[in-house]
Structures are given as structure tokens and as C-alpha cells.
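Suppose a classmate hands you a notebook page containing two proteins, each written out with its sequence and a corresponding row of C-alpha cells. How would you begin to make sense of it? This section walks through that situation. The first entry is reproduced here exactly as it would appear on such a page.
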Amino acid sequence: MNAAFYESILNGKRLMFWFTSMGKESIIKVIQFKPTEEPDIYEIALGDLNSDGSIDLDKRSDNGDTEEVLSTVAKALLFFLSDHMEAQVVIEANSDSRARLYQIAIKRGLDDLGEYLVAYGFDNEKPEVLQSGKNYKKFVISLREDRL
């Protein structure tokens, strides 16, 4: 977690963060924690802010600053979980390449923060402890119960 990250601004409800990706161009990014129908379960979404105020979740910016963007998302996730200690955050990839990227980032984050966080990958609809050599498209991250 010592990687560079962008400063971010959060909304009053602490469910949305904004930051500017400074790679090949300047792009305003949004990290959104969306409550689900299940109590204390949130989905995280990362997208580009469009000029009309909507968020494009599918656009691949390829702005050359992936490490900084992922570090910023990790910091926002930690901030969110520190403010919503019972929450579980679901991360779901919309492509195989993003799933690999997320899995690498989650593994790296757990190397640094595994004392505080726990992460599971979904094998179909059943969560399991992340296993090396196994690919997942959906993950859930929360604070370790012994740290609450």
C-alpha cells in the first residue's frame, strides 16, 4: 500500500469519491459504493465522469496510471470500511482481463493489509478463501471480524 495514489474528494454520505487520473490526459474518476438490497452489502464501481454528470462504468481509459488508480481505489475502500465497519464490499469484473487485474490488486493489498482485511473469491455463487492459481470474477472484501 505504499504505491502512489491520488487525493480524492468524498461526498457527505461517504459513498462516493472523486479524483483526477493524471496519465496521458486528465480524467475525472468516480468510485461509488452502492448499497444492495442486502443489509451491509455494497457494490463498488469505478468509472469515468461524463460531461453530463453520468458515470461511464464500461469505458476503458487506458490512461497509463493503473497503479495510481488502483491504489486510490484501495485507499477509498479502506476509508469506506473504517466508516462502515460491518460492511462487505463486492467487486465484480466485467471482463477476464479486469478480473485478473482486480485479483492481482487484491492479492497485493492483502499482502500489506491481510491483518485487517479478509477477501473471498466466488466460485460460481459460493464464496471461498482466495486460492493461488484460481481465477475469480467476483470478490468480497471486509474487515476481519477479530479487528472490529
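The notebook's second entry, a different protein, reads as follows.
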Amino acid sequence: MAAKLEIERKFLVADPGIVAGLGGRQLLQGYFGAIGAFHLRIRLAAQAGQEQAWVTVKSDAPGIARQEYETEIPPALARRLLAGCPSRHKIEKTRYRLRAEQGHAGLFWEIDQFHGDHAGLWLAEIELDRADRPLDLPPWLGAEVTNDPAYRNAALAAAPAGPAAVDAELQTYIDALLK
């Protein structure tokens, strides 16, 4: 499977009130080390009693565009792996989705409210179809942090730098993903 090129801009949120009335999705992410030049991440999402989970390998390249491989995995597998992940390598957040304003058809802002060690941090990101796409920035955004590696989730989670120790069950998903 070919890697998806993720083109994303990221901003601090100046006015978190923008999510008032929106239903959020609870996310728990754990970082497990490196597979080559990629971070290995497990994400478990819960909303309205439903769970979904993914394994992701994502490049740590600087800039707006990074390569990403991702596939869905059973939530029970994600729960088991995340239970064994040290808390310093996890992030908990609530994600809200907000349709971008007119002129940006098909685009959504993903607004993350961080919990735990990062309580009080709010980030907004938007995935684009090309790096040079013009974007009207709404007034609720703060400073752009796209090029600041400190605001990457892997950095916030103090992702382990060494090679990932991969569980045998998870390895089958990774092997299929990287084919």
C-alpha cells in the first residue's frame, strides 16, 4: 500500500468557544517507537458508546507535508496495547470537527482540546489537497505552529526514539499496511 501524503496546517486556538455546542470524540493515542523513519502510533476513538481504532506509521519530516500509512484495527487490540504503553507516551484529547467556511468546500477544521499533562492546550489543524492551497483563516485561530515540531503529537507524547517493539498480533496489520 502506498503512503498517503498528508498535507496539514496547524494553529493554536485563540477562542476555544468555537466548539460550543459541538459533540466531540474522545481520542487516546499511544506512541510506541520508530519503524524506520516513521513513528508508530495506536489511536483509540470513542464517541456515543462506539469505538474505532487505528495503527498509523507517520513520517517525522519537517514541513507541511508528511507521509502516513494507516489502517483500522480491532478496538480490543488497541485497548490492550495502550494499556501497556507508558503514560508519558500517551496523549488524551477531545476532537471536534468544524466545516471550513465557504470557499473551502470539503475542508474541515479538526480542533483538539488536550487533557492530562497537556490540559489547556488547544490546537486546530486542517488537511489540504495541496501545500500551496490558499486558505482564509477564521478569527478564532491563534498563531500558526505548522513548522514548530514541539506541537506535533509525537513530540507532546515524548514518542520513544528507538525501534518499536511490535506485538505479534499488531505486526500482521503493519505488514499488510506497508506492502
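A careful reader of the second entry would note: The CA atoms of residues 22 and 37 lie 36 Å apart.
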